[in-house]
Write a structure and sequence with these properties.
Elements: H1 7-24, H2 30-41, H3 50-58, H4 66-76, H5 84-99, H6 103-116, H7 121-133, H8 139-156, H9 172-180
Helix pairs in contact: 2-4, 3-4, 4-8, 5-6, 5-7, 6-7, 7-8
Amino acid sequence: MNMTINIKGFLTFLSGLFVTITVFGIDFDYHKDFKDLLSKSKDKNSEYYYPKLLERFNSNDSTLTNKDIIALQIGFTANKNYKPYQTIEKESEILELISDKKYKKAITKCNKLLKTNPMNFTALMEKGFAYMKLNKTDVLIHKERTMKIIRSIMWSGDGTIERPYFVLSPMDGQTLIRYILGGSIGTMG
């Protein structure tokens, strides 16, 4: 996918990310917190109850915290539609349609994937990109949802083995490195 980077916007994002991590720190440790948040995502009385968080996410609740978004994603791992390795093909199709500038078809594919995987990073990001390219008016909704996922991923760790980023799809880390951080991938394992 050939995408120009808005340098000012990217620098603003990095500054905000730096302030968020510096001021608030990283309060998530995958190895310690996953099971607890998964349990809470199933508890109707918990602030991290999956259906409640999903409703807030879909209504563009601006008060959702990074921890809320991570809890939402962890809750999704218990969903029957969470099949990360079966999602890769759909994500690749979306990326190919975007690369071929077939934005309307990409939006259709994104919508289909988002029905069963409402926080799919690739579908959210590329739907927003396609909306932007087609000059659709509600592009900000999709941008904000994507930014919530990006901020929560960056908040969840530092990318090391000891503190990995929390992502739902095997492609999310690659997408983050290539399209958000502007890096390249040498080897994966």
